[in-house]
## 1
Amino acid sequence: EKAGYDHFMIKEIHEEPGAVRDTLTEMDDVMRVVKEIGEVERVCFVACGTSYHASLVGKYLFESILGIPTDVILASEFRYSARALTDRTLAVFISQSGETADTLNALRSANSRAKTLAIVNVLGSSATREAQHVLYTRAGPEIGVAATKTYVSQLTIIYMLVAAMGAPELIEKLEKVPAIMEEALGDEDNIRALSSHYSNVSDFFFIGRGFSYPTALEGALKLKEITYIHGEGYAAGELKHGPLALIDDGVPVVAISPPGPCHDKTLSNVEEVRARGARVIGVGSTLDEALRKEADDFIGLSPEVDEVLSPLVYIVPLQLLSYYVSVERGLDPDKPKNLAKCVTVE
Ligand code: M6R
């Protein structure tokens, strides 16, 4: 059932273009749900882990494109933060499994105070029965403990939601994503080769600004889960407020820098870490000569992908990087120690 792949994780990464394509077929459902929900003054995303990172992208989209104030709360922290939910608040619960205890508990407590929407991959799961509104990601079953294709499907539904709530021009851009992802997957041999330089390091940093900040966090989470290497995601501008003290000779820094308004500032951060000896893995447009020049290793992606769309595409090489580092270290990426696919305890 691994269809010739060594692990479910790599099979599922290869299924990402199809997962985005299938999720895009849900547009009519998204439009229906947006109509049913009615007026929204605030949005509040609630989720854990990878689904939390998808939610962070949601915040950048809702605020920068729709101008709707948006909070993102870890489900396990939801009860400790006194939030003023009202009947004009849309509380969005994102969960691959639809069974995560922290997320379900938060959903239960929000149901009487706000409009609730669950974005879920598993049909008929608890979250789909308890939320007022439901949207499905069409990623198909995900076996690997590390979320991969379900992350890009969650992002796709969030973009579609934003499109339906007032930014229809996003749809045309989204339709190009599966083909661009296929191109990114075509660079697998390069990523496998460069992974071998990083299998013995003890720390990794991932940096990005704006839409690339959640990508940095998600890249670091994947690395931790399946390679057991300490990985930290940072907003690139935060480096100088502390973590720069940890940058030393040979410390790998993955710099996520798609074309767009944040690009030049991220590039200055790359220069800062290089000056302190970091080994930089640049992830940017194939046409980005400046980043390529600063980087020790370079992963090039389609120049068509701008910052707004980048979370969907730039995560693909980071998942591949973690996968190949894990394999290089002789680990089983499908079954990381201490972790379960579905966390049903608080
Ligand atoms: O099923 P959920 O999306 O609610 O799960 C949330 C997290 O437990 C999950 O994303 C976890 O962080 C993954 N192992 C990440 O790869």
## 2
Amino acid sequence: MSNESLANLLKEERRFAPPADLAANANVTAEAYEQAKADRLGFWAEQARRLTWAKEPTETLDWSNPPFAKWFKDGELNVAYNCVDRHVEAGHGDRVAIHFEGEPGDSRTITYAQLKDEVSQAANALLELGVRKGDRVAIYMPMIPETAVAMLACARIGAAHSVVFGGFSADALATRIQDADAKVVITADGGYRRGKPSALKPAVDEAADRADTVRHVLVVRRTGQDVAWTEGRDLWWHEAVGRQSTEHTPEAFEAEQPLFILYTSGTTGKPKGILHTSGGFLTQTAYTHWAVFDLKPETDVFWCTADVGWVTGHSYIVYGPLANGATQVMYEGTPDTPHQGRFWEIVQKYGVTILYTAPTAIRTFMKWGDDIPAKFDLSSLRVLGSVGEPINPEAWIWYRKNIGADRTPVVDTWWQTETGGIMVSPLPGVTGAKPGSAQTPLPGIAATVVDDEAREVSAGGGGYLVLTEPWPAMLRTIWGDDQRYIDTYWSRFEGKYFAGDGAKKDDDGDIWLLGRVDDVMLVSGHNISTTEVESALVSHPSVAEAAVVGAADETTGQAIVAFVILRGTAAETEQLVAELRDHVGATLGPIAKPKRILPVNELPKTRSGKIMRRLLRDVAENRQLGDVTTLTDSTVMDLIQAKLPQAP
Ligand code: ATP
Ligand code: MG
């Protein structure tokens, strides 16, 4: 990257104060920032007391061997006990833990007491299969309650799980099983996806043939489809788990006991096995879930729409909400099955109060039209969250207005697989929100923006987002590769964690994420953020979604090429393209005007819904496409290439 810091182009002046009633009853007030600033470790020690420890920690942080952190290291706890048993012991056994909604319309309600029984049975079954503390178990599942049960059962016996997203191929599964040396795989015959059963077991069979570490495969019956069976290795969940006792006494493990390995989504390169441990991870996920969403466990119904195969599902479907004794919705399928109002129907059915979803979903809803959510009663909603990519200000406004009745706060939460929990986000009862900005490091979190020389930028400056102090839910290493951990995250700026994202600080010192530094464009010597140009395009009424890349250009170094998806009725004319180019020029300045704008029907996205800009760059530079295996739908690229006029 050049020495020119990111140009600061976008001006967004809209502000939204917290609703008065929410602010008056908020879990967290502005004092939390002061308190954490005065005594950061004391603040986290206090948050750790949200958990029930078998042995209370006396030491908060051991940072004697950076960047390898130990949090609460002499403390002992059982993560599953914290997520399940203690709520039952506190008299909340009848509280609903999970409202499960299957894609075909089947549903199941699971109370904390039932969850305790199921997790205990699954823990007993894993023990019977020879799984012990410190072992690894791979989980390759649809979005069904057994997935959470399986994760908690691993945690309960001190085994680390490695959840592999159910949409990944046999090949991806095999490499992950091998990398983590997993001896048991938990899967299902299949799950429902877009109105039909989609098989999972064949991929496990193929992967287990290749990875010779696998001794047993535990199979949940979900769809009833035929499965191949390897006698001695394969076991049905309903038999092997179903016949177990519902009694299991949880053992306490050290705070640094590995809890899970999760491979990053692979937007940029070879996936990394991110290792998370127990006490610090659970402390931060419990705290942030309570603080950022203002969770009231007695009355709220929380719904995080992520797949449990991503970190968002780990931290904000399984661990954070359950540690807090929350009631939540879990949905198996896609947002347009059987109709485009499915999400809103679910919000209405369960009276969801807190919704946590991704910008890619929000932009899709914008494209489908305002009339769809308008048909449902969404008045139960009181806090909306966003995660996964920078949210364009216009998508933020649409979300607040059409889903939140122009009343609910929107919290834009920045974090990563590596950070384990939310790091930078507004607080719904405290922060005056700015559409498109994650704004403020949470209490106890030290994040800032630095320039190429690692100097903190002043208000109005742009550069790189870094974390300057260790945090409880931080990754502990890359599984089996300490050196890659140091090289990837701690080498760019000495003593600081480099997140890989570009960011700027506005005049108030609030943080705006500007996209991955790998995606930043260099035009006539200026670093320009893809996010800002995309947001400018999406702010035009005819554009639903945009992806922008820098393509090699003889005169300017790189030229901006934009791919746009038009909203419902907009016609694809030369006139509109010219209008869009001028619109970007007027919004951000002439330097940011795209050289080419190409209307397309779809954009290439990873399975976690993020735009894959490197493939668009290949297209824009007339190159052979790179690896497309992590795309949701690889035919998208054929369509885009077919539309492309030959480059000038
Ligand atoms: P890989 O690291 O393998 O390339 P990935 O970065 O997509 O994959 P995740 O850990 O799921 O894997 O995503 C974290 C990244 O997502 C962040 O580094 C950032 O680029 C982006 N991101 C997440 N939330 C936000 C947000 N609220 N605002 C801006 N960017 C976000
Ligand atoms: Mg990443």
